[in-house]
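User: Fold this; tokens only.

Assistant: Input:
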Amino acid sequence: MSEILQHLEDNLRRQVALYDELNTLESHKQKSIINSKLQELEAITLREEQLLLEASHLEKERLLWAEQIGRDLGQAPEELTLAELAKHYPMLQGVRFELDRTVNALQAIHEINAELLKQAMKVVEFTVSMLTHQDKRTYNHPTNHKEDEVKPKLHLLDRRV
């Protein structure tokens, strides 16, 4: 059993390292978004895709180790949480805290980046509508019809010119 636990711990440590790298990439992505460096953003996205594929592979491997441990504990691997495993096997406590810290940090920066991208898209939509004289937006939220009718439209270029 200790060999299986060692393999599981090694797997989890590799996941922590992978998520740390993703976290670093998300920080770089944030700077690229703010500075509008599209080539950097594309390179970061490609690297993130590679890391996510690797994370998927590690997760499948983790499920195999969890399945073996689950048999000994009489539980399905999908039902075994890392917190529960750490209660049974204290050697997993450290990696559990590291993984929680890393994933929470990654989630926080990812949410900020998602909001930055939404704001950038709003700027692009506004600019395009100003330049193309669109009286109606292509994509509208169904509840915003009356709000759009009341607001005067601003145009950067006058059609009459």
